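Tutorial handout. Part one gives the primary structure; part two gives the three-dimensional structure as C-alpha cells.
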Amino acid sequence: MITSTKNEQVKRVIELKKRAKTRDEEGLFVVEGSRMLRELPAERTELLYVSESYQKSKRPLPTGPPFEVVSDSVFAAMSDTKTPQGVLALVRQYAYSLDELLAAGQSALLMVLENIQDPGNLGTILRAGEGAGITGVLMSRDTADIYNPKVIRSTMGSVFRMPFLYAEDFLGTLMLLKEKGVRLYAADLSGERDYEAEDYRGASGFLIGNEGNGLRTESAALADSRIRIPMEGRVESLNAAVAASVLMFEAARQRRAVVKKGVDK
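Part two.
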C-alpha cells in the first residue's frame, strides 16, 4: 500500500490532474468516482488507484486493469474532489478524425465550440449532446481542455463515447464542413431568425461561442444562418451549455418527427 505523497506514482497522478501539458505528453487523463468507474472502458484503462477504505468496503472493481491501494490521506491528495469516493483511474486519451465526426453523412449533427472556457459547460455539452444524438463535437484550440478533471466529471461518462476534435485551423475547418454539405447555424443574440424556424434535419452544425464574448466575427460570418433563442422577462441570454442544449434537442425533435411521420405512413 502506498502511504506517502512523495511516492512517484502519487506525484505523477497529481501532475496529470493539474497540468494539460503533462496529460498530452503522456497521452493519459484522470477519471475519478464510482459512477465513472462503471462507465470506464477497461481496454483503455492503464491503472486504477483505490483508497484503503474503498478496498475494505469490498465494492467491485473492473476486471482486467491492475490496481494500487493507497492510504486514505494519500488518496485525498490525489483526488480532485472535496469528498473523494476512493477510486480513480488513469485512462488513455482518444484520437478522432473529422471524418469520424462526419461519418453519419447527411445525418451528421455537430456542436462546434469556439473558446468555451468553463469546464462545466464543456462537460455538460458533451453529456447533453449524447442525449440529443449529436455525432461529434468540434472545438477551437483555445477551448478548455476536454481532459480537465472537472470536464470529465461533468460528462458523466459521455466523454468515453462522444467523438471530439480540436481544430488547429478553426476557420479552415468551418469552411471544410461547409464544403462537405454541413449547414452551420451560429447562436447569436442578434440573430435574424428564431431557432425554431430553421430546418436541422440535414447535416447541421451549431456554433457556440465564448461565454462572455460570443463567437468571433470571422467565425460567425461563415454561418449559413444566425439564430437566436427568444427570451421572456429580463433575461438577456442563456448559459452556453443551456443554449447548446436547447438547440441540440430542437434538432433531435425535428429528426424524431421525420421518423414518426415515416412510421405513421
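Part three, for discussion. The CA atoms of residues 199 and 254 lie 8 Å apart. The first strand starts at residue 28 and ends at 32.
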